[in-house]
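yo, Major facilitator superfamily (MFS) profile domain-containing protein is done. seq:
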Amino acid sequence: VYRVPAMDTHASREKKSVKPIYEENVDFARAIDLTGIGIFHVSIALVCGFSFLASGLQNSLNAYILPSVHCDLDISSSEMGLLNAVFLAGGISSGFLWGVIADMFGRRKVMVYGMLMDGILTLISSFSQSYKVLLVFRYLNGFIIGGPSSLVFAYMSEFFPERLRAKVICYVGVFWTTSWIILPAVAWVVIPIKWAFVSNGFVFNSWRMLMLIFSFPSMLSALILYFYPESPRFTLAKGREEKALKVLASVYSWNSKMPQDTYPVKSL
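structure:
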């Protein structure tokens, strides 16, 4: 009996394993390109956008609590101005630090701890019972928030190919503007509430509630960022090539749904 040999059809060829082509001594720009663009890049842009939004909320918060603080704590117009100014003074006094600290310890680490501390400080300041205490905490908020907000773009862009960085930065910048919509909308609902908790001289009312509410975006962004990797460029700059490769392979795996060991770069 004559048997016709099986034809090498397209379907059968697809079943044959194709050995991946690996590249050695790849420069960083090429390594980033080979991770592809996909779900990881969308997710990190959204996470960094949320962190930028939380920073925007913090930067504009004074404008919505000052009228109530003026009445509740019985402060003068000059004291209102000082309360607004110390937040900016905090940002100015720490501005030269964050680049140095980020280059020493990493962008992600500074962002995580900075956003967490900002949220905690805002949470504590919502319980302030005197003008001086509130003044100190607003200065500290300004001092801290400058770090994460200035590092958002540096951290995020180091995961993107150079051809896309400017575009993604523009998209993420919209989150700051969005905070200018969210903050007045929430303040419009919360500030007019005629409710207060009073006990033995302790008062907690609507403007304090507003501060409490806006402490959570900072802490939530810190929690989410904690689960993301450090910038591979920073990791490579610190001489940790193997760790940088693992980060890049992880990004590749997220985007392609392929195992990390199929990432074609084997050395940088």
